Amino acid sequence: MKVDILAFGAHPDDVEMGCGGTIAKSTSQGKTVGIIDLTRGELGTNGSVEIRDEEASSAASIIGAKFRINLGLEDGFVFNNKENQIEVIKAIRHYKPDIILSPTQIDRHSDHGKASDLIYEAAFLSGLSKLKTEFEDSIQNPWRPRVNLNYQQWNDFKPDVLIDISEFIEVKKNAILAFKSQVLKDSSTESTKINSENFIESIKYRAKNYGRLIDKDYAEAFQSRKNIAINNIFDLL
Judging by beta carbons within 10 Å of its beta carbon (0-12, 13-18, 19+), is residue 153 exposed, middle or buried? Predict the structure, then answer.
């Protein structure tokens, strides 16, 4: 299966929080998007892996993802090593995305930065013809995505790309709210940074601030480690 966009998260809910609006907008335009979570979030303060699996499936449906899979790496111990790179390479070669969306390079949670490096390096290695991998008993062909953008997570950053999500801000918010065990506080859950009232409000006010910078209502922010090339200056319009 070839997809237009393959979105990676270190944990279930990372993708929705970082680029859920962009995914929802893309799928509404007929683009195919897949989601790959590296871990099942088993070290999360609240919820369980079973609950988070169910929430992740619901959230993916809300933003229109074609599929969502989990690589089962260890939460809290995502390492940029050969073993993990090979697993990511297999996924990239199988789904052949033109665009990868991945975690930010520097963030509060150490898994985010390590996942960012892991995916960035795996995406490069995936294009090397002498690196052999197999998937479902078949030798895979090399494939290198054309674009790899890092979405914003906890920390603020200076964006290289801002994408208008004005018509999809409520879809993004609903997808995040699908992770009830993580973002909704009740008497049975412990307080965390992402189940506070301020965090839920920040979903919109951060997007609103980025929208302000491009004269739109809401936007999502991305960084690129490489220069972004365009074919024609009028592509900027």
Answer: buried
Q: What is the CATH number of the domain that holds 141?
A: 3.40.50.10320
Indicate the burial class of 237 (C-beta count within 10 angstroms; 0-12, 13-18, 19 or more): exposed
In this structure, the number of other CB atoms found within 10 A of the CB of residue 68 comes to: 20
235 domain-assigned: no
| C-alpha span between 175 and 6 (Å, rounded) | 17
Q: Which domain holds residue 212?
A: 5-221
**pTM to 2 decimal places:** 0.95
Output the six-digit token pair for 114: 């390590």
Neighbouring CB atoms inside 10 A of 79's CB total 15
**Relative orientation angle of helices 14-28 and 169-177, to the nearest 10 degrees:** 140
Tell me which DSSP letter residue 70 carries: E
pLDDT in tens, the chain (237 residues): 899 999 999 999 999 999 999 999 999 999 999 999 999 999 999 999 999 999 999 999 999 999 999 999 999 999 999 999 999 999 999 999 999 999 999 999 999 999 999 999 999 999 999 999 999 889 999 999 999 999 999 999 999 999 999 999 999 999 999 999 999 988 889 999 898 989 989 999 999 999 999 999 999 999 999 998 889 988 887
